[in-house]
Design brief:
The protein is α/β, with parallel strands linked by helices and about 400 residues long. The protein contains 16 helices and 12 strands.
């Protein structure tokens, strides 16, 4: 584990990424860092934030900014959620538990992936307000229903249904590394893991790693690689709006769709009675060539009051969050950014990342001439110049 002094020196987004690169085996760093195709959409998700410039209003009193906000049925300390990250527990042992523990301590929203390594029951005492579960709908709807029942019993109250994975994207880094193509590690992969002894030592304490939601299915195999590949093959390629209605009837809590990218799909989601959407291109991991989510947000119509529009994709800094809210987002979901921090520094790394987000959001609001997120939403587009 890096020293607290080392972690305190991580300030720029790239600091966390490079620290994760140094600690993780290439197999897992590439899975986290990589994307589909030429990875152009993943890059645009980050780069297009730079095409939105601030237009600050000066000679305004610089009062302490209020960063608390309501979304997905609960009040949160920041307009952030820790988004669902598949295989998070392979980047650091018990990383899902660490993420939820920090989220509860900080008053943040957090979302558990269907591809979790940590069983949801182990998280029950660490769930923040409105804790969410991200669902991949399976071909076997009976298993899908059983997953929902298990999550409700564990204390999750928000359901996030991912709708942009009828098939898996072509991720060239994973293909080169053999991830999800083998049931067992090759000799070369074993050597690569051994080259990261810090990672290996912590993971050995949690051996054997398994996909928590597939470990009771005999046909999925008994280890992480085979279970992850099996679970991916079970995702329903025929997911439809009719399935969404069926799920909505089964889930009594807050209900969100993740993977919306078009205005007409946003309209359909609103009509379907869901509580919100996560505007997302899956971090560029599905279809390369899609526009960045921040540029898509800039063209989206304003949803009705009370409907949550959360931006996911490329969020690396507090200024990114401020730009997204100015353009109409309720909040932002963090993905790779917080996974890098957890992988590199555990809970202390994630706390350091969140401290940086809070400080930059607060300073940005003061420098823009607003003293709260509500004021930022009211002023909105008058505070930004959109060039994407």
């Amino acid at each position: 584990m890096p020293s607290r002094k080392t972690i305190a020196g991580w300030t720029a987004p790239e600091d966390f990424r490079q620290a994760a690169r140094r600690r993780l085996p290439k197999l897992f760093f590439d899975y986290l860092d990589g994307a589909a195709g030429a990875e152009r959409t993943a890059a645009d998700n980050i780069d297009d934030f730079d095409k939105i410039r601030f237009l600050p209003s000066v000679l305004q009193p610089a009062r302490p900014a209020t960063l608390q906000t309501d979304f997905l049925g609960a009040r949160h300390s920041l307009p952030l959620m820790l988004g669902p990250i598949g295989s998070l527990g392979m980047f650091r042992a018990q990383a899902e538990l660490m993420a939820f523990r920090v989220a509860k301590r900080r008053g943040l929203q957090a979302c558990l992936s269907s591809f979790t390594i940590t069983p949801p029951e182990r998280l029950s005492s660490e769930l923040p307000a409105g804790a969410a579960f991200q669902l991949y709908v399976l071909k076997d709807f009976g298993r899908t229903r059983a997953m929902l029942e298990r999550m409700r019993a564990a204390g999750f109250s928000t359901l996030v249904v991912t709708v942009d994975v009828p098939v898996s994207g072509i991720r060239e880094r994973d293909i080169r590394n053999g991830l999800r193509q083998r049931k067992r590690l090759s000799p070369a992969q074993r050597l690569a893991l051994a080259a990261r002894p810090g990672w290996l030592l912590t993971m050995a304490r949690a051996y054997p790693a398994r996909m928590a939601l597939a470990e009771d299915w005999p046909e999925a195999g008994r280890r992480y690689l085979s279970q992850a590949a099996f679970l991916a093959r079970q995702i329903d390629p025929e997911l439809s709006w009719q399935t969404i209605s069926r799920l909505r009837a089964l889930w009594p809590g807050w209900f969100v769709l993740k993977g919306i990218q078009r205005a007409d799909d946003l309209g359909r989601a609103i009509e379907s009675g869901v509580d919100g959407v996560i505007l997302s291109n899956h971090g560029g991991r599905q279809l390369d060539g899609c526009p960045s989510t921040i540029s898509t947000l800039a063209r989206m119509p304003t949803p009705p009051a009370g409907f949550d529009l959360i931006l996911d994709g490329g969020v690396r800094r507090g200024t990114d969050v401020v730009k997204a809210i100015a353009l109409g987002a309720t909040a932002c979901a963090l993905g790779r950014a917080y996974a890098y921090a957890l992988a590199a520094g555990g809970e202390a790394g994630l706390e350091r990342l969140l401290d940086g987000f809070a400080a930059e959001i607060s300073a940005s609001l003061a420098l823009l001439g607003v003293d709260s997120l509500d004021a930022l939403r009211r002023e909105g587009r008058s505070l930004v110049d959109i060039r994407c």
